[in-house]
């Protein structure tokens, strides 16, 4: 038995699953403190069944806490970024392309020191202990306790980051250190950005992860706790505490994976309708299609593995106007139950239209009886057109594709989208997020430069694959289930020795102790 | 007319330069950050037309050379291209009056702007490649008699090498490539010192503002829900890059790359959604040739670029991925790049293709 929980901005959904079967599900309002909401959800979930907390073998949680903290710019730790790369890289100090607002929110301080590697393995410049000691002194004087360390070519050689971390640990005992080679791939700025984000989330991660663990053990469950990552795989709670940045895009990923599970489809478009937005993405081979270019989070460029999702401002709480006619993008959000007409409020929302049209039955139907049928149809028509448009932009072929609608607001999705095809709304569609978290797999990835000698390509590739498999296994996957899901080779121009960048990703089923 | 570059121009310029990069030349993004940093510090960049350069002026070409993939990891210190220029000036015993981009396509659209911002020198609106090419001799400056030498190469430690191979520009490229590898795979150069008269005679004029306008045309079409491809074709018809053709819209169905002789060589296959028609692109850093069923559609030095089918965002050969929905566009090069002398240096045979050049407007008539 496993429990999947999705903690959203408005609602917390929880599902209880026995293998592939959904045994129970529940939805409660998200609470300000993490612990109570989750404890409440678990209690409600189990109370309707004959299962004991001791039967639970794993709890999987998807959370938007960390990305929301960045988007809102609060609860972030003051952070120092130290880059090893001088005399190179000086033209663009850490955080130089960040929005001013976020630099202030983390009280960000940038330092550049000598060090880093060349592509061929030489050091750019020797590291200088005195230089680092001076930086440590300044950081200590300012009371900063979260530090991001990046170094040129650290995905190929992490020596400099490790050496700097050793020195800083000694000088700043208790400081939380994030090292870029553990967080990002090639591309110094994007990797460094992700590392700084990770560092500024460290205190919040501590707090949230402790809260989650307490909520689960408080419910009498003695089972490992996992958080879902951007690519639809899981990490254990200790890993999440150290790498909170890896949870960033887990929301869309979970709903898409949940949709795949519920519909039984491995290739389809997924339309996830929440309170404020509709997110549309493509599933390929059961996994979300990842963005091919760099993804900007709140104005900061990163190179996370993130699903390629398009969003429009249409959800259950979207505000509707008649003059001029419009649906969204603004939404009443979590105040739906006080603002919407069917709940006695004064704001016309998509939910009211759904109730008036007879496709939903919530609140007091008599409160929307006055709405004109032509107007209702016009709103539904607009929603249908906008959704069709987004699905059309996301799909990669003009062939009809399967469309799966999930999420609490998905009653708004019409039965079929013109020119695209029929829409499926699987059972338990409203809790697809939590199901996606429950069924997530674990993965391992290798992304590094290799020097490939003639005739050695296969051997090098095999090494990289083996390393990815080992990483997946050490993350908790059963070895027999691990598969290589992505291999990518990019040879580097202009250099001898066939320098090649190889990326390999392996994923497998999580082993749960009986 | 001289033009002062604004901060808001940089994204458009980068987009247009990536289109002119024909798949190679590196993603100009990091360059926009470098230049934006200069503009925010209050420095200015003034673009002048070739006609505004004095005949007797000394103009020096500025660029980076090496692997763009190294630049995204080993970001420059910022002084390298300036030091290269200063050391070449010292070697020549004369100060430059203006600089000129070597290559308007890709990341090299931005490096000379950094130099212009830091030195206050004007930058000529034009270049020697009219697109991106992989080697230093592939410039109209050299095609029409300007020697690339002496040139200066600099790295982030301020190590400098001066190379002088007389008027043998191929040898200059060969030595410079070796030095660049020793410098860690990327270097910053000052080359082709020339007179204002030479600039007017040998440069491809207006290519920097062309890149800027192409990027702007794509963005404005997107913002007003127009077709960015039609907007591009319409705009190009009024320029020296007169003929543009959409060769195909489809999906990337195969991509194969290998490292050979210090270049990325490979092929990309794009198929229409019904699979009925395929276009095969052969590239060596940049796209060299487009064929469909063995039939030639476009060939170097004409431009072949792959753009996102929806947004018309240019995609470099490195960023091409299976499944991407793209359109392939071919664009005619200006007349100055189509003479027999020019084709000798950067026509199909210069890339080892056993084929003559045929203009894209003949291969793919409207």
UniProtKB/TrEMBL annotation, chain A:
It comes from the Bacteria. InterPro entries: ATPase_NBD, Hydant_A_N, Hydantoinase_A, Oxoprolinase-like. Residues 191-358 form the Hydantoinase A/oxoprolinase domain. PANTHER family: 5-OXOPROLINASE RELATED (PTHR11365), HYDANTOINASE_OXOPROLINASE (PTHR11365:SF10). This is Hydantoinase/oxoprolinase family protein. Residues 2-171 form the Hydantoinase/oxoprolinase N-terminal domain. It comes from Streptomyces carpinensis. Pfam families: Hydant_A_N, Hydantoinase_A.
From TrEMBL, chain B:
Residues 168-360 form the S-Me-THD-like C-terminal domain. Transmembrane segments: none annotated. InterPro entries: S-Me-THD-like_C, S-Me-THD_C_sf, S-Me-THD_N, S-Me-THD_N_sf. Signal peptide: none annotated. Residues 8-164 form the S-Me-THD N-terminal domain. It comes from the Bacteria. This is DUF917 domain-containing protein. It comes from Streptomyces carpinensis.
């Amino acid at each position: 038995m496993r429990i999947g929980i999705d903690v959203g901005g408005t609602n917390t959904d929880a599902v209880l699953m026995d293998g592939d079967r959904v045994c129970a599900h529940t939805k409660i309002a998200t609470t300000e403190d993490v612990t109570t909401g989750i404890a409440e959800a678990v209690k409600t979930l189990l109370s309707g069944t004959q299962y004991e907390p001791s039967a639970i073998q794993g709890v999987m949680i998807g959370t938007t806490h960390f990305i929301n903290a960045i988007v809102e710019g609060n609860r972030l730790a003051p952070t120092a970024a130290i880059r090893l790369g001088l005399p190179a890289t000086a033209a663009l100090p850490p955080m130089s392309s960040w929005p001013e607002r976020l630099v202030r929110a983390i009280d960000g301080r940038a330092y550049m020191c000598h060090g880093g590697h060349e592509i061929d393995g030489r050091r750019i410049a020797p590291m200088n202990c005195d230089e680092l000691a001076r930086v440590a002194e300044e950081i200590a004087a300012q009371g900063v306790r979260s530090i991001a360390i990046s170094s040129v070519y650290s995905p190929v050689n992490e020596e400099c980051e490790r050496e700097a971390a050793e020195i800083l640990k000694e000088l700043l005992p208790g400081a939380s250190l994030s090292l870029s080679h553990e967080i990002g791939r090639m591309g110094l700025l994007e990797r460094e950005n992700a590392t700084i984000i990770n560092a500024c989330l460290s205190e919040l991660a501590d707090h949230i992860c402790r809260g989650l663990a307490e909520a689960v053990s408080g419910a009498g469950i003695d089972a490992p706790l996992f958080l879902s990552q951007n690519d639809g795989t899981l990490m254990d709670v200790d890993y999440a505490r150290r790498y909170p940045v890896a949870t960033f895009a887990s929301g869309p990923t979970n709903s898409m994976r949940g949709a795949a599970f519920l519909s039984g489809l491995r290739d389809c478009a997924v339309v996830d309708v929440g309170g404020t937005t509709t997110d549309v993405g493509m599933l390929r081979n059961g996994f979300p299609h990842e963005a091919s270019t760099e993804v900007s989070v709140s104005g900061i460029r990163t190179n996370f593995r993130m699903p390629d999702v398009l969003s429009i401002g249409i959800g259950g709480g979207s505000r509707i106007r008649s003059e001029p006619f419009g649906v969204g993008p603004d939404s009443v959000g979590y105040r739906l139950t006080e603002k919407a007409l069917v709940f006695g409020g004064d704001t016309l929302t998509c939910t009211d239209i759904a109730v008036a049209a007879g496709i939903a039955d919530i609140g007091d139907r008599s409160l929307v009886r006055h709405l004109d049928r032509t107007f209702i149809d016009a709103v539904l028509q607009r929603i249908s057109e906008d959704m069709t448009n987004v699905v059309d932009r996301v799909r990669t072929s003009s062939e009809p594709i399967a469309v799966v609608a999930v999420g609490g607001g998905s009653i708004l999705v019409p039965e079929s989208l013109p020119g695209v095809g029929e829409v499926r709304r699987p059972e338990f569609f409203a809790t697809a997020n939590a199901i996606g978290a429950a069924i997530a797999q674990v993965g391992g990835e290798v992304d590094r430069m290799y020097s490939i000698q003639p005739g050695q390509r296969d051997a090098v590739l095999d090494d990289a694959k083996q390393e990815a498999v080992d990483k997946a296994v050490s993350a908790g996957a059963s070895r027999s289930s691990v598969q290589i899901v992505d291999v990518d080779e990019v040879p580097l121009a202009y250099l001898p020795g066939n320098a090649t960048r190889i990326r390999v990703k392996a994923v497998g089923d999580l082993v749960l102790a009986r | 007319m001289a033009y002062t570059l604004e901060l808001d121009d940089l994204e458009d310029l980068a987009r247009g330069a990536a289109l002119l990069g024909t798949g190679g030349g590196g993603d100009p993004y990091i360059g926009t950050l470098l230049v934006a940093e200069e503009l925010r510090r209050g420095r200015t960049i003034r673009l002048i037309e070739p006609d505004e350069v004095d005949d007797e002026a000394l103009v020096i070409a500025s660029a980076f050379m090496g692997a763009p993939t190294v630049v995204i990891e080993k970001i420059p210190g910022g002084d390298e291209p300036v030091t290269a220029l200063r050391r070449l000036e010292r070697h020549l015993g004369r100060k430059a009056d203006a600089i000129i981009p070597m290559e308007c396509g890709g990341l090299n659209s931005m490096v000379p702007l950094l130099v212009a911002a830091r030195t206050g020198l004007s930058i000529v609106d034009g270049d020697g490649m009219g697109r991106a090419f992989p080697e230093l001799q592939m410039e109209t400056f050299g095609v029409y008699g300007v020697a690339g030498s002496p040139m200066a190469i600099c790295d982030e430690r301020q190590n400098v090498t001066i190379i002088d191979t007389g008027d043998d520009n191929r040898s200059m490229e060969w030595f410079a490539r070796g030095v660049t590898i020793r410098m860690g795979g990327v270097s910053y150069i000052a080359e082709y010192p020339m007179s204002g008269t030479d600039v007017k005679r040998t440069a491809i004029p207006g290519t920097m503002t062309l890149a800027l306008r192409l990027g702007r045309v794509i963005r404005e079409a997107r913002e007003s829900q127009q077709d960015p491809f039609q907007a591009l074709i319409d705009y190009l018809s009024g320029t020296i890059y007169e003929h543009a053709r959409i060769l195909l819209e489809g999906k990337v169905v195969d991509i194969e790359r290998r490292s050979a002789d210090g270049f990325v060589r490979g092929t990309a296959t794009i198929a229409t959604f019904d699979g009925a028609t395929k276009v095969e692109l052969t590239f060596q850093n940049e796209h060299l040739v487009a064929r469909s069923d063995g039939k030639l559609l476009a060939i170097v030095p004409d431009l072949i670029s792959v753009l996102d089918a929806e947004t018309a965002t240019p995609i470099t050969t490195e960023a091409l991925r299976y499944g991407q929905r793209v359109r392939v566009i071919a664009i005619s090069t200006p007349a100055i790049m189509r003479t027999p002398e020019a084709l000798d240096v950067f026509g199909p045979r210069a890339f080892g293709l056993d084929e003559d050049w045929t203009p894209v407007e003949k291969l793919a008539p409207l």
